[in-house]
Amino acid sequence: MPETSPKTKGAEKEHPMGDPRYKGIDRVLKRQQYQQDALIEVLTAAQEAFGYLTEESMIYIARQLKLPFSWIYGVATFYHFFSLKPQGEHSCIVCLGTACYVGKAADIIASVEEAYKVKAGSTTDDGKLTLIATRCLGCCGLAPVVVLDQVVHGKETPQGAVAKVREVVAGGNGA
Ligand code: FES
């Protein structure tokens, strides 16, 4: 099967947090040399990776930047463009980084947009699904990558992605 979960991926080196999406956060942390004043950019990378700022990701960032969690939380709640909870009941995050783009990730977005009458960056009228396009999630070996409700699916196709979204929205796990 082409899909994989963050816990089971073997081909790529696992992230210590057990989820390959943390690699995207790590890349920004390294690029910014772990400077505390890069917090907004790091939080932005986390939101793009997870669809919203999970508590776990904020704790991770606090540790990496050696800042108190209360500071991270304060910044995350101050700026309206950060969200601390998923916007729709389900989230479909499609990576549009270079490797995924070359792998036709734009077609995946177009297919989900068409199937659910929703534009990337927004939520369906019934609040069931939020579709998000994001930058590189740090697991390019799996390109094109789609993350459905926290589960990473690699080597995805437009038809496969729509089928999995349908299953997730219908209450399955998309596997
Ligand atoms: S380009 Fe999609 S995971 Fe890197």
Jot down its keywords.
disordered N terminus; alpha+beta; Glutaredoxin; single chain; binds FE2/S2 (inorganic) cluster; 7 helices; 5-stranded mixed sheet; 2 domains; 5 strands; 175 residues
What can you tell me about this protein's structure?
By secondary structure, this protein is α+β, with helices and mostly antiparallel strands. It has two domains: 22-78; 90-169, Glutaredoxin, CATH 3.40.30.10. Helix content is 41%, strand content 11%. The protein has seven helices and five strands. It has helices at residues 22-31, 39-50, 55-65, 69-78, 98-102, 105-116, 158-169, and strands spanning 90-95, 122-123, 129-134, 146-148, 151-153. A five-stranded mixed β-sheet has the order 2-3-1-4-5, sandwiched between helices. Strand 2 (122-123) and strand 3 (129-134) form a beta hairpin. Helix 1 packs antiparallel against helix 2. The longest helix has 12 residues, at 39-50. Mean pLDDT is 89; it is low at 1-11. It binds FE2/S2 (inorganic) cluster. FE2/S2 (inorganic) cluster binds next to helix 5.
Whole-number total of structural domains: 2
> What's the number of extended β-strand segments?
5
Largest sheet: 5 strands, mixed
Q: What name goes with the CATH superfamily of the largest domain?
A: Glutaredoxin
How are the strands ordered across the major sheet? 2-3-1-4-5
N-to-C order of helices and strands: HHHHEHHEEEEH
Give the CATH topology of the largest domain.
Glutaredoxin
Terminus-to-terminus distance: 9 Å
Mean model confidence by pLDDT: 89
Structural class: alpha+beta
- Stretches where pLDDT is under 50 for at least 5 consecutive residues are 1-11
Overall geometry comes to globular
Given this structure, which CATH class of the largest domain is correct? Alpha Beta
Cofactors and ligands? FE2/S2 (inorganic) cluster
Classify the helix fraction into a percent range: 40-55%
What's the Cα radius of gyration?
16 Å
CATH architectural category of the largest domain? 3-Layer(aba) Sandwich
Q: How much of the sequence is in beta strands?
A: 5-15%
**Helical stretch count?**
7
